[in-house]
Automatic annotation (TrEMBL), chain A:
It is found in: Cell membrane. Belongs to the ABC transporter superfamily. This is ATP-binding cassette domain-containing protein. Transmembrane segments: none annotated.
TrEMBL record, chain B:
The lineage of its organism: Bacteria, Pseudomonadati, Pseudomonadota, Alphaproteobacteria, Rhodobacterales. This is ABC transporter permease. InterPro entries: ABC_BtuC-like (IPR037294), ABC_transptr_permease_BtuC (IPR000522). It comes from Paracoccus hibiscisoli. Belongs to the binding-protein-dependent transport system permease family. FecCD subfamily. Keywords: Cell membrane, Membrane, Signal, Transmembrane, Transmembrane helix, Transport.
Amino acid sequence: MIQIQGVSHAIGGTPILHDITTTLPKGRLTALIGPNGAGKSTLLRLVGRLEPLQQGRITVAGHDVATTPTDRLARVMAILGQQTAIASRLRLAELVAFGRWPHHKGRPGPQDQAQVWLALKAFALTDLADRFLDEVSGGQAQRAHIAMAWAQDTDWMLLDEPLNNLDMSHARSLMARLRGLVDQGGRSVAIVVHEINYAAAWADHVIALKGGRVVAQGTAAEVLTEARLSELYETPIRVGTHQGRPLVLHHA
Amino acid sequence: MRPLPALTSALIALMLASLTVGAADIRVTDAFRDPQALLVLLESRLPRTLSVVLTGAALSVAGVLIQALVRNRFVGPDTSGTAEGAALGLLAITILWPASPLWLRMIAASLSAMVTTALFLAVIRRLPVREVMLVPIAGLVLSGVLGSVVTFVGWQTDLMQYVGTWLMSGEFSGVISGRYELLWIAGVAAGLAWFSADRFAILGLGDQVATGLGLSTAAVMRLGLAVVSVVTAMVVTTVGMIPFVGLVVPNLVARIMGDNLRASLPVVALAGAVLVLACDLAGRLVIHPYEVPAGTILGVLGAVLFLWLLHRRPPRSKPAHG
């Protein structure tokens, strides 16, 4: 379980999060949704200790994020922030292999190599393994970064907008992989997602943020209702159902 | 051809050649019979060859590290305020305590180089990440400002001659046994960096990834800063700053081998040694028995190589979609 207690955060004097208290349940796929600037990414980055905590307390599986050594946390959770332009020239296989670094600290064993190969295979990267990071497309680089987090093989996996740059088929296959991690692997996953139907189709638990506050949380069916979504995004939204799950009709 | 064996053979060949070339008219093969030849070999030729190799290797490794620290390919220890910082420290200790022992000058140069390089890193942190070219420009500006402070103080205190040997012309003609050994410290510092090669490679992937993998970025930054500063300070103290090596060699190697530093750092070190030794040899041969400083040859060659690099691979700020 990830427990977030009384977390407030400001960036450059502008308050982003206001006194957030919530939990992300263990063994579930949690989606963080909300309009632009709601504070979803900031909240995820605070949990993943990519930003220093200003106020409040966050624990991941009992580890206080503010006080636990960062290399210890790297064996409990993998976090992938939004991709920034990085000039590093690593081969994709080398990048994914760094996902094992928290475990072997520079001395990879056969088990680490097997895990890297599985991760490359899981994200359809085996053919690209020898290509340099600056020679592949944005979507391929994104998949390589996700594969790296995957290879880290932690109980918690936090992904900030992992579907960015991915085409339909890779987006769906990623969500299916994450679902499999939760259902078969007993792991817990949290993602920030903009396309609400990915949350509707795949998430167990949905947390809706707006203006730096939690406005709704619960199962996908509880949160993704016409009234809630229309208010959340301040635009009229209709919700149907498809194969027993909500289907959000917002495109026209 | 694999780069490591190819560069190793090239380096050995160049080192042998370097032992045979010089102003003194001796035959190296006579070294066992002719005491004069042996003296020249052990007191001048060998120290010179070693100093060139150590300088080239250490500066190139320092270039890789500073590029990982600032995550930008277009900087080197000669364009990040490091060399000027070392000169500033040397100048200060020379003025404050003219008779200071060598080890104290060395420490002063290293510490001062650390301070100015840390200043460069602090400046870089405040620049927008996407503006790739701002980083080298900031480095050039900082180097320029620090360099003019050094020059001003040098003029005022009548120490311009020293400043010239530290910053203006990197050259090895003054190297004899007993006057280059500090460079071993640079070599050892660069060698130590290899043990943290993975950490520097991860740091080069950006703060987010580094933190996510549990790397203590501040500690790695401090280590990199220390190595870059010590290497540069030793080079500035003994032979004077050699331009372009720390910029060009890491770029050339990264083009071919990528940034897996554990595999590429030895290649970077060898390539740096080969490049500087080739330039020094050329400088000894073009107007034999006189010399052109290796730094001058490298300035010309380095500029050409760098233009070629820029042309081959424009700075990539790749669009996010694709």
